[in-house]
Design the sequence.
């Protein structure tokens, strides 16, 4: 693999997995486990792929042990296990005007979807949000495929000082309101985007990234409540009608193992420091 | 009985047997031989195997209890018709290699089946000795004897002979018990065989589902190693239907035949309030975290966490429910309840598992079932509200139907709920394989040779049978392999004529 750091905690890597590179479609993800058979299995979005080279692009945020380990890999290192592509691909058609809202790391899964929507003839309005300028990723890629690109930062260090829901509300009130919305990012962002678009009856797809083990439907650990019923993100999703998703419950489920995850991350950081001292 | 007494008894009996003087009454008088087990208190704190296996003396004494019936009703009770009477006779003679060879004629995984087969509803149910005592637990312990001869062979495993290459390619989807047998049998015929496994580790339900304390992973690994030595190729992290479809495997990669043994699929939930709360698991998830990912070693080499539970309720009465409850005990839970809506008599679990579960302190709550799951403000489980049940008339399954008693609600306080009420078919193959026929439950339709509606495509195990057992999956793997071998022979002849 070939790795690059996009911001303080966001990394990207090009990984050679020819079969997945050829089979993947927008909206799909892979399950990765790094070292051995007892490494954690985590779902990661496929941000891009080059079927000819046989590579996929992964983008991830360093939040726990596994993502930190991944960030510590070097060019040419191997990842023990990658399986996929998983999940139901995005339904792509010519809706007309589509507003694509990305928040933080959510820009990564959004990019291939926005690109496919553009290729299908849609007019693309992209709204990309970040806490601060340094954390904004994939701006160039989005500017290439967007008919209109709006950047927001929480602290006003770049683009508009606003949350993504600000410009989203304005766009929804335009004379020619969007026909479809896609919102991908932190759960709280998707929740509030959906609350905005609901007022204007704009269908909104969201892409969820929950805790998974197998990623093929076997364990059910990734389930979320959609329209009051349990759905599996790995096989029924990862995309759902955002107006029907119970984001509050999903947020809590994402934190189910928080204490253990923090402990593991701390341990890893300590261990890594020791390795550094040895050198 | 002391070991010395046992040895003496064995000598006497063997002499009598040699001289043809051993009568059925003598055989009935031999006490059923128990196998040594880890003490229940000790084993609550470890994941090592519970049943330790026969000593040679114990095994031969147990084998002498077999009447060597002419009709051998045990064989009819075995899903793969192992020549049980003959392998037991070989144990009496001390010829364990011969005993194993006899078993291997019909079953490729004796170390596995000796441990996990529900013998009391198969071979041991029809055993004349058990019938004579009117107690199936007093039947000859065929399963333990099978395990005994298989374990002796562990160090000196024999690799089956492989026929010269045929130039034909077989894809086996799934590395569970059915897939292993299908791969071995088609490879023996000389075909070029590849197993595709979705997980990063082979073995299917034998590694993610059945716990270490019931079936050590090393035994499954031993079987996989034999396949490798035979020249079977194994590709992990390959999800047929996603990484490549069956059609692509056959057209692009030129596989001439395919065996689908993808197993059970999606966990069934109850459809009650609160099932998405934190602390509610499907048994599949709980066991996969614990077994496959070794969550009991979290922070000590394993990275997958699992709930740290004090009070756990497992819903269901099958082997998976027992495995989940016993796993929860080993993960440190103080109280584990098994909640089942019928009575112990109707439980589908093996008698031995029920017995072991009780020994380990699991509290059985029969004739009860949850009505809703209750959580706190943080969406963590705090209790289940249950209804009491009574039994009515038998239903389609032949078991008496459980009927809820109105107004009988009561709650059980807990922090973890594990739902072990079965699986529904995984739709992935259905969604990605046009032309393949399925029944209304989403299971693949096959004929008596495990042939599907698509030419060259065969299927077996849980994806065909719904919920089945290791031995039934193995049986279908074998049937399918025989049909594949025959089909490929015809294909080859047809090729040569052109």
Sequence:
């Amino acid at each position: 693999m070939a790795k690059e750091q996009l911001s303080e905690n966001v990394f990207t890597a090009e990984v050679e997995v020819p079969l997945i590179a050829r089979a993947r479609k927008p909206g799909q993800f892979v399950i990765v486990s790094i070292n051995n058979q007892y490494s954690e299995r985590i779902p990661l979005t496929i941000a891009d792929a080059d079927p000819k080279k046989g590579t996929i692009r992964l983008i991830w945020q360093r939040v726990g042990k596994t993502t930190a380990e991944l960030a510590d890999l070097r060019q040419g290192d191997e990842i023990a296990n990658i399986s996929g592509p998983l999940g139901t691909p995005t339904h792509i058609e010519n809706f007309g005007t589509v507003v694509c809202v990305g928040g933080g790391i959510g820009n990564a899964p959004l990019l291939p979807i926005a690109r496919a929507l553009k290729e299908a003839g849609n007019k693309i309005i992209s709204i990309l949000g970040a806490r601060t300028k340094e954390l904004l990723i994939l701006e160039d890629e989005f500017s290439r495929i967007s008919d209109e690109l709006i950047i927001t930062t929480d602290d006003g260090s770049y683009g508009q000082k606003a949350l993504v829901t600000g410009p989203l509300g304005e766009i929804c009130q335009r004379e020619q309101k969007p026909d479809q919305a896609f919102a991908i990012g932190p759960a709280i962002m998707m929740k509030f985007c959906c609350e905005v678009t609901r007022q204007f009856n704009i269908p909104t797809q969201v892409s969820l990234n929950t805790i998974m083990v197998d990623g093929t439907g076997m364990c059910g650990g990734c389930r979320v409540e959609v329209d009051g019923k349990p759905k599996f993100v790995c096989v029924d999703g990862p995309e759902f009608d955002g107006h029907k998703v119970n984001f509050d419950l999903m947020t809590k489920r994402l934190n189910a193992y928080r204490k253990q995850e923090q402990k593991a991350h701390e341990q890893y950081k300590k261990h890594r420091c020791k390795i550094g001292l040895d050198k | 009985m002391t070991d010395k007494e046992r040895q003496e008894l064995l000598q006497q009996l063997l002499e009598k047997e040699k001289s043809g003087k051993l009568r059925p009454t003598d055989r009935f008088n031999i006490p059923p031989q128990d196998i040594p087990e880890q003490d229940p208190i000790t084993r609550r704190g470890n994941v090592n195997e519970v049943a330790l296996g026969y000593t040679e003396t114990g095994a031969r004494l147990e084998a002498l209890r077999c009447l060597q019936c002419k009709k051998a009703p045990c064989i009819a009770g075995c899903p793969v018709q192992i020549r049980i009477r003959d392998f037991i006779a070989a144990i009496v003679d001390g010829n364990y290699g011969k005993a194993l060879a006899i078993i291997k004629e019909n079953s490729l995984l004796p170390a596995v089946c000796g441990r996990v087969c529900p013998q009391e509803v198969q071979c041991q149910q029809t055993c004349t000795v058990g019938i004579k005592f009117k107690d199936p637990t007093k039947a000859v312990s065929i399963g333990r004897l099978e395990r005994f001869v298989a374990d002796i062979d562990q160090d000196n495993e024999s690799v089956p002979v492989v026929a010269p290459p045929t130039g034909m390619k077989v894809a086996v989807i799934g590395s569970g018990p059915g897939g292993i047998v299908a791969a071995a049998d088609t490879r023996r015929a000389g075909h070029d065989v590849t197993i595709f496994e979705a997980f990063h580790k082979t073995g299917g339900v034998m590694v993610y589902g059945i716990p270490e304390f019931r079936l050590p992973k090393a035994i499954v690994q031993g079987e996989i190693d034999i396949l490798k030595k035979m020249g079977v190729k194994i590709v992990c992290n390959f999800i047929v239907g996603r990484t490549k479809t069956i059609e692509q495997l056959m057209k692009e990669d030129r596989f001439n035949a395919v065996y689908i043994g993808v197993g059970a699929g999606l966990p069934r939930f109850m459809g009650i309030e609160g099932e998405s709360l934190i602390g509610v698991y499907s048994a599949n998830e709980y066991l996969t975290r614990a077994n496959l990912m070794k969550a009991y070693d979290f922070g000590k080499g394993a990275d997958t966490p699992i709930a740290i539970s004090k009070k756990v309720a497992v819903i269901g009465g099958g082997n998976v429910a027992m495995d989940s409850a016993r796993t929860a005990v080993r993960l440190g839970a103080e109280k584990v309840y098994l909640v089942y809506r019928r009575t112990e008599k109707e439980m589908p679990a093996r008698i031995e598992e029920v017995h072991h579960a009780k020994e380990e302190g699991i509290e059985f709550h029969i004739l009860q079932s949850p009505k809703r799951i209750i959580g706190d403000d943080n969406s963590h489980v705090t209790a289940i509200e249950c209804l009491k049940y009574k039994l009515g008339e038998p239903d389609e399954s032949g078991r008496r139907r459980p009927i809820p008693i109105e107004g009988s609600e009561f709650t059980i306080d807990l922090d973890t709920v594990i739902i072990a009420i079965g699986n529904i078919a995984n739709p992935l193959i259905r969604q990605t394989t046009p032309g393949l026929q399925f029944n209304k439950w989403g299971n693949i339709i096959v004929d008596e040779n495990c042939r599907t509606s698509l030419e060259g495509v065969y299927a077996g195990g849980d994806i065909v049978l719904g919920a089945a057992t290791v031995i039934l999956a193995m049986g279908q793997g074998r049937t399918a392999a025989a049909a594949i071998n025959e089909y490929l022979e015809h294909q080859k002849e047809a090729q040569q004529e052109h």
Notes: The interface with chain B takes residues 19-20, 23, 33, 37-41, 65-66, 80-86, 213-214, 216-221, 223-225, 230, 232, 235, 246, 249, 252-253, 256-257, 260-261, 263-264, 267 of chain A (CB under 8 Å). The mean pLDDT of chain A is 92. The two ends of chain A are 24 Å apart (CA to CA). The longest strand of chain A covers residues 42-50.
